[in-house]
Amino acid sequence: MTNLINSLLVLILALNLFALGSSRIQSIIHTAAIQGVLLGFLPLLVHSHLSISLLLASLIAIVLKGVLIPHMMNRTLHNVRIKREVEPLIGLMPSLILGAIATTFALLFSNQIPLIAEHTGKLIVPAAISTMLTGFILLTTRFKALTQVIGYLILENGIYIFGILLMGAMPMVVEMGVLLDVFVAIFVSCIIISKISKSFSTMDTRMLSSLKE
Q1: CA-closest candidate to residue 141, choices 59, 208, 206, 81
Q2: Can you give the pLDDT at residue 83?
Q3: The predicted structure's pLDDT at residue 56
Q4: How far is CA 15 from CA 92, 116, 178, in A?
Q5: What does the pLDDT read at residue 17?
Q6: Is residue 196 within 8 Å of residue 208, measured between CB atoms?
Q7: What are the φ/ψ torsions at residue 169 (nearest 5 degrees)?
Q8: pLDDT given for residue 123 in this prediction
Q9: Rounded to an integer, what is the distance from CA 28 to the centroid of its chain?
């Protein structure tokens, strides 16, 4: 089972790098959707004792992260009048190098964290740290507002991976509350982006920061 979990987490790490190296917003949305579906299956593999609440949590995560949120982003992208290319602050190759450095740091740092025997040997902690750092890089090095929303979603995916370790100690309702907060935040962000695009011809946050009233 550990090999299967690690294989799934390696796929998530690869998707992080693909998101950083992609030049199209549409591709990053699809990447986030695939990552969301994979994350939905992760709790079922990590926890050997299946329960109705665990199955429900996985189903909600797959529907929200893999279907509803990407659908809202695709719809927003279709509605706004912007170029579909990503406009990065530091370029795609430097972004990939930063992502590789973040992954290496996560692998080294995770060795310093004491884990219970059940989670030893799994890539959960490095995958969580690397995914959070990837989301942070997207959030801070992309100019399009929609791309920054995707960065926020990927950052939350990293927090979700950490949360899987705590599912035994943390009430399920807390995890579902966080997922609902993320869904509402992205839902509101997509509405705001659509409304702004009707009045202005850009979603570049450098231009939006200079708007008055």
Answers
A1: 206
A2: 62
A3: 81
A4: 15, 27, 23
A5: 92
A6: yes
A7: -100, -20
A8: 84
A9: 10
Q: Which residues, 6 or more positions from 63, have their beta carbon under 8 angstroms from its beta carbon?
A: none
Q: Please say whether the dihedral angle defined by the alpha carbons of residues 206, 132, 175 and 37, taken in this order, is positive or negative.
A: positive
pLDDT of 164 reads 78
- pLDDT score recorded for residue 133: 92
The number of residues in the chain equals 213
SS3 letters across the chain: CHHHHHHHHHHHHHHHHHHHHCCEHHHHHHHHHHHHHHHHHHHHHHCCCCCHHHHHHHHHHHHHHHHHHHHHHHHHHHHCCCCCECCECCCHHHHHHHHHHHHHHHHHHHCCCCCCHHHCCCCHHHHHHHHHHHHHHHHHHECEHHHHHHHHHHHHHHHHHHHHHCCCCCCHHHHHHHHHHHHHHHHHHHHHHHHHHHHCCCCEHHHHCCCCC
Divide the 213 residues of the chain into consecutive groups of 10 and give the mean pLDDT of each group.
85 92 88 90 79 80 87 82 68 89 89 72 86 90 82 87 72 65 71 67 63 55
How far apart are the C-alpha atoms of 60 and 1, rounded to whole Å?
23
Find the distance separating the first CA and the last CA of the chain, reported in whole Å.
Answer: 55
Structure tokens at 115: 């884990």
Tell me how far apart the alpha carbons of residues 68 and 82 are, in angstroms, rounded to a whole number. Answer: 22
Q: Which pair of tokens denotes residue 92?
A: 């795609």
